[in-house]
Specification:
Elements: H1 4-8, E1 13-15, E2 27-30, E3 35-41, E4 46-49, E5 61-64, E6 69-72, E7 88-91, E8 96-99, E9 110-114, E10 117-121, E11 135-138, E12 143-146, E13 157-161, E14 164-168, E15 180-183, E16 188-190, E17 202-206, E18 209-213, E19 227-230, E20 235-238, E21 249-253, E22 256-260, E23 272-275, E24 280-282, E25 303-307, E26 319-323, E27 328-333
Parallel strand pairs: 1-2
Antiparallel strand pairs: 2-3, 3-27, 4-26, 5-6, 6-7, 7-8, 9-10, 10-11, 11-12, 13-14, 14-15, 15-16, 17-18, 18-19, 19-20, 21-22, 22-23, 23-24, 25-26
């Protein structure tokens, strides 16, 4: 009788742990869990409940993936009591755990990179309206101070990896700004300016292929539905969101971007929108409407998180995981 190799031309991989970045169609045997697994693609987008934060968060910010996320900076105006804005937590796809606190406590800053290799810059100290320029590097266990960012910013766009990061827009303590800063792993340099000054946008992508949508272009309580893209040198307009909102979450790529939550001037928004490179489409609703600027996940994949935040002043611990249509997901084969 022909075996699997004779039929397919190769053997099933025998691994002690699941691969970190499996591709659709990949099959393997996990010798630790004793499971036969494969990677398939989701047919529809959906939200599912994830692990709760150790400490509730608002005005926090995050980077990483759905299974390896880094959340930084708890806001000082939380209920029922303030939480230090220097707190950091890590997510493993199932649960959150405390990590080393920031060297310079702040909230609403800019964070990009991975869970074990990230840059944190700007933001506001606890109880202080001033916006900082302090920049720190995270190696998965400790934070190290780096050269300061020349531009003061908070509540802005933050995407990319440690050696190719992007910060843009936000609030400098006095005004909304259009500045864009590119990071190459050691220094910040000026990039193309945003067409409109704004803060609290949802964003995703990379340093040379980013998108940003919604946000607060001024003291308007409702925010905006405008969207823009960045090509590594300049910003250009994209089609508008279907729902005007500010303080929203964003993740995904420039051709498969997701924004969720936000505030429409009256109440938190509980819907998500998916950008397919052509237009925005209203997507699966979240179980909780979330507002304020810090939610979770700058994953370059259309699989991310919405975590913390909530109605203004609230400090939700709840996490929701989003899996977009067509995203690779690992499935276990039942063997009797």
């Amino acid at each position: 009788m022909a075996d699997y190799k004779g039929i397919k031309g190769f053997k099933v991989q025998y691994l002690s742990a699941d691969p970190s970045n499996p591709i659709v169609g990949q099959t393997w045997y996990n010798s630790t869990s004793k499971d036969l697994k494969y990677t398939g693609a989701t047919a529809t987008a959906s939200w599912a409940t994830g692990g709760a934060l150790t400490n509730g968060a608002t005005y926090s910010y995050a980077t990483g993936t759905q299974t390896a996320n880094l959340q930084v900076g708890k806001g000082p105006t939380q209920n029922p009591s303030p939480v230090s804005p220097g707190l950091v937590e890590e997510y493993n796809g199932t649960s959150w755990s405390p990590a080393t606190s920031l060297g310079t406590a702040r909230y609403a800053g800019g964070l990009f990179g991975t869970q074990t290799s990230a840059i944190n810059s700007g933001g506001a100290p606890a109880g202080d309206p001033a916006i900082g320029i302090a920049t720190e590097e995270y190696n998965g266990s400790t934070w190290t101070s780096l050269t300061n960012n020349p531009v003061r910013s908070g509540w802005g766009i933050h995407v990319g990896i440690e050696t190719a990061g992007l910060l843009a827009g936000g609030w400098n303590g006095t005004a909304y700004i259009t500045n864009t800063q590119e990071y190459d792993g050691s220094t910040f340099s000026a990039g193309g300016s945003l067409p409109t000054a704004a803060s609290g946008q949802g964003a995703g992508g990379t340093q040379t292929a980013a998108y940003a949508a919604g946000g607060e272009p001024g003291p308007s309580p409702a925010g905006t539905n405008a969207a823009v893209s960045y090509d590594g040198s300049s910003w250009s307009s994209l089609p508008n969101l279907n729902t005007t909102r500010r303080g929203l979450n964003g993740f995904g790529s420039q051709t498969s971007g997701v924004v969720s939550g936000g505030y429409n001037g009256t109440a938190p928004v509980g819907t998500a929108e998916l950008y397919d490179g052509i237009s925005w489409n209203t997507d699966s609703p979240m179980s909780i409407g979330r507002s304020t600027h810090g939610q979770g996940g700058n994953s370059s994949s259309a699989a991310g998180l919405s975590v913390g935040s909530g109605p203004p002043g609230a400090n939700l611990k709840a996490t929701e995981e989003y899996t977009g249509a067509g995203v690779a997901v690992t499935k276990t084969v039942t063997v009797s």
